[in-house]
Write a structure and sequence with these properties.
314 residues, alpha/beta, Rossmann fold, 2 domains, 10 helices
Length: 314
């Protein structure tokens, strides 16, 4: 990739911010009061079909306007200069969009030229980017002859050929077999080395868990969770499911200096220095909580998502 990024790379500031974001299509509520502050890195956008993922991506690109609320990328309001901002962003749509009678090299080079890159440099970048996604040998084949997995990689290549600071990927693993999914996720993970920030949507939670630093969860247009995906560092974790209100246990653990998260009736305690099982046992006694289950924290992103959905729906 080139040495000249088209958007901020190494920054501690949020890459994406929204405030009280609403989007309606007629009587249909696509997004409702979404407040986000997404840090640099690779972020997963999780939700069932119809959760609002694609709508959020379109709002970030300035392809549709919010009903109300604010959207900012790289600290700049999208409404101020959507076209200028799109020059700093790469976008891979979910649906099929490739011309069957063009070669991969021609298509990706054309995408680079649309971003303002001179033709000779666009051809060079197209070749380099297709090599990155594993299609260098196939770059002169017609797109109509490509498999679904190869077409997805071409779409990925055109989204990064202009070296954007942020890449928005809408269901990049859609339609891929397990091997193709693994290849796609491996390429996305390599973007870290180029300093690219990524937001990619998926309803496949394993893909998000395998690749991302941060997760944003949507359900029915509402924000369920926006949080890091980092595993507990240098410490043990224990999850406890209680029969009743988890807050007394949360309070007892917090008072003991234990880091705590909870979703629904599942409380997770993390401590890098204390014996976390002993701390949880003492907190259970102090709070009077009755436990349904307890064990080392092996909860998956799916567990967290389902618990957050249940809690949101009451």
């Amino acid at each position: 990739m080139s040495d000249g990024p088209t958007g901020p790379r190494h920054t501690d500031s949020p890459i994406i911010e929204t405030r009280d974001l609403h989007k309606h299509f007629g009587q249909v509520r696509a997004l409702a009061g979404v407040d986000l502050s997404v840090p640099p890195g690779i972020t997963g956008l999780v939700g069932a079909n119809g959760a609002g993922k694609t709508t959020l991506i379109r709002l970030l690109l300035g392809l549709t306007a919010p009903t109300s609320g604010d959207v900012a990328v790289f600290g700049a309001p999208v409404s101020r200069d959507a076209a200028g901002l799109r020059a700093k962003i790469g976008y891979m749509p979910e649906g099929s969009c490739l011309p069957r009678d063009q070669t991969a090299a021609d298509f990706v080079a054309y995408a680079a030229e649309l971003a303002g890159i001179p033709p000779a440099e666009a051809r060079r970048r197209a070749s380099e980017t297709l090599f990155l996604v594993g299609l260098h040998e196939e770059r002169f084949r017609y797109l109509g002859d490509f498999s679904t997995g190869m077409q997805q990689r071409v779409k990925l290549a055109q989204s990064i050929v202009h070296d954007p600071g942020l890449v928005l990927l809408d269901e990049p693993a859609s339609g891929l077999d397990p091997a193709g999914r693994d290849q796609m996720l491996e390429v996305i993970d390599r973007f870290r080395g180029f300093g690219m920030n990524v937001l990619f949507s998926s309803h496949l939670l394993d893909d998000i868990e395998q690749t991302c630093d941060w997760v944003v969860m949507l359900d029915g247009g509402r924000l369920l969770r926006s949080a890091p995906l980092d595993p507990p560092a240098d410490g043990a974790a224990v999850s406890v499911e209680v029969f009743d209100d988890p807050l007394p246990l949360v309070a007892a653990l917090t008072a003991a200096g234990i880091e705590v998260t909870h979703a629904d009736r599942v409380v997770t305690a993390v401590s890098p220095t204390e014996d976390v099982f002993v701390a949880v046992r003492n907190a259970l006694a102090a709070s009077g909580s009755s436990i349904r289950a307890m064990g080392a924290d092996l909860s998956s992103l799916e567990d967290v998502f389902m618990a957050a959905t249940r809690e949101s729906n009451g």
